[in-house]
TrEMBL record:
Source species: Murinocardiopsis flavida
Protein name: RNA polymerase sigma-28 (SigD/FliA/WhiG) subunit
Biased composition (Basic and acidic residues): 16-36
SUPFAM superfamilies xref list: Sigma2 domain of RNA polymerase sigma factors, Sigma3 and sigma4 domains of RNA polymerase sigma factors
The keyword Cell inner membrane is annotated on this UniProt entry: no
Region Disordered, residue ranges: 1-36
Domain RNA polymerase sigma-70 region: 66-133, 143-207, 232-280
Molecular function GO labels: DNA binding; sigma factor activity
Length: 287
């Protein structure tokens, strides 16, 4: 309280101006992440309520993709300067995002980000593995390729010539033999295009390099795994085998399987997870 010249006492504020700062608001990034996670949880709950492939399901998936667009950009930037266009990296990361949205199971009680990041990273790494290195190179050489490119570019700009083998080795801390091996490995990063003209066929028509390469039978590499899986499936009860058939060969969702089996989606999820774990252990034991 305070007094005036007329003796009238008027109320005054007694709390400190700085008092609200005792409850400091979260950092901007933390607040944005929390808001994104809350929206994600709600959207997946909505997605579980609507029919698959419906217009509403597509709208929810598009909303999830928009919310996580910054994650796509961030993960794509992590792989820049590795010989792949940034827009291509964004596209690959978006593929990983859409796969994560389709494959995520909220019933497992894990946050979406814990499923999204490994899925997106795996998609990016698979892209580099399948589309950049022409032959297998040691990981140490792969990781130092960007460093070699930076040094070569800076040296050429400074001296108006390419660095020698000795100069590269001195910068990279390698002897002559190791430097030669690294240069050979890094040269495998960019292969010839399969659309490059290669010659002519018997009819005199131009052929491409890719025409000279035989197609690999993808079933050969899977033969061993299929045989092991066949043996493991022998011990699986008929009900669990039917769930596997509907999920992986019928491409049905857990909700559709639950309706066909006459049980809850949560029960289908538990049976599916336990069956896959059992099969995985059996196959690893056989191997």
């Amino acid at each position: 309280m305070s007094s005036t010249r007329l003796g009238t006492r008027i109320p005054t504020r007694t709390h400190s101006v700085a008092e609200p700062r005792r409850h400091r608001p979260p950092a901007r990034d933390d607040h944005r992440d929390t808001h994104r996670d809350n929206d994600t949880e709600w959207l997946f709950a909505e997605l579980a309520r609507v029919p698959d492939h419906s217009e509403e399901a597509h709208r929810i998936c598009a909303r999830l993709a928009k919310i996580h667009a910054p994650v796509v950009e961030r993960e794509a930037r992590r792989y820049r300067d590795r010989g792949v266009a940034q827009e291509d990296l964004r596209q690959v990361a978006r593929v990983g995002l859409m796969k994560a949205i389709r494959g995520f199971d909220p019933g497992r009680g894990k946050p979406f980000m814990s499923y999204l990041l490994p899925t997106m990273t795996g998609e990016l790494k698979r892209h580099f593995r399948d589309n950049t290195w022409a032959v297998h190179a040691p990981r140490a050489h792969q990781e130092r390729r960007a460093e070699l490119n930076r040094f070569t570019t800076e040296f050429t700009q400074r001296h108006s010539r390419s660095p020698s083998l000795t100069e590269i080795g001195a910068h990279m801390g390698l002897d002559a033999k190791a430097t030669g091996e690294m240069l050979g490995a890094c040269s495998a990063y960019s292969a010839l295009s399969l659309d490059r003209p290669y010659g002519t066929n018997e009819e005199g028509e131009e052929t491409m390099l890719g025409d000279s390469i035989g197609a690999a039978d993808p079933g050969i590499e899977l033969a061993v795994d299929r045989e092991a899986l066949k043996q493991a499936l022998v011990g699986i009860p008929p009900r669990e085998r039917r769930i596997l058939l509907l999920r992986f060969f019928g491409d049905q969702t857990q909700a559709q399987i639950a309706e066909a089996m006459g049980c809850s989606q949560m029960h289908v999820s538990r049976l599916l997870n336990s069956t896959l774990t059992r099969l995985r252990r059996a196959m690893l034991h056989d191997s």
